[in-house]
Amino acid sequence: MSISDNIKELRTRYNLTQSELGEIAGVTDKAVSTWENGTAEPRTGALEKIAAHFGIRKSDIISDDEIPYFIDPETADIVQALHDRPELKVMFDATRKASPEDLEIALMILNRGKSE
Fold it and tell me: How many CB atoms lie within 10 A of CB 58?
C-alpha cells in the first residue's frame, strides 16, 4: 500500500475524520486530504505525531506493506485466540478498539464460563 493508502486506512480504521487526524498530526483537514489523494506527502514531524498516536513506527506508514490490523502484538495474539475459536467468533468484531488488558479479561471470563 502507498503512504496515501496507509494514512487513509489508519484514519478509517479508527473512525476519525480528516479534521481529527489533522489535529493529531498538527495540520489541517485539507492537508490530510492531499495526503490521502496522493497529491502531497506528510512531513516528518506529522508522520512522527501520527506514528506516536497510534503506537506504530513511521516506517509502518510509509511502507508499501499493509499496516497490521492489530498493531500491538499482544493484542493481535489475544484477538487471534478469540477468532480461532468458533464459539468466540462473535467477540472478534467487538475487539477492534479494546486494549490488551480488556481483551485478556474478556478471554478469561469466557474461558471460565466454558469450563463450568
Answer: 14
- Sign of the alpha-carbon torsion through 19, 15, 103, 80: negative
Question: Cα separation of 74 and 113, whole Å?
Answer: 23
Structure confidence at residue 18 (pLDDT): 97
- Report the first-to-last Cα separation within the chain, whole angstroms: 46
Mean pLDDT score across all residues of the chain: 81
Model pLDDT for residues 6-25, shown as the tens digit of each residue: 999 899 988 899 999 999 99
Backbone φ and ψ for 61, nearest 5 degrees, come out as -80, -40
pLDDT of residue 103: 77
Domain of residue 13, residue span: 3-62
Mark whether 56 and 101 lie in a shared domain: no
Domain contains 68: no
33 close to 18: Cβ distance less than 8 angstroms: yes
Q: Please answer whether residues 61 and 3 qualify as being in contact, where contact means their C-beta atoms are separated by less than 8 angstroms.
A: yes
In a domain, 67, yes or no: no
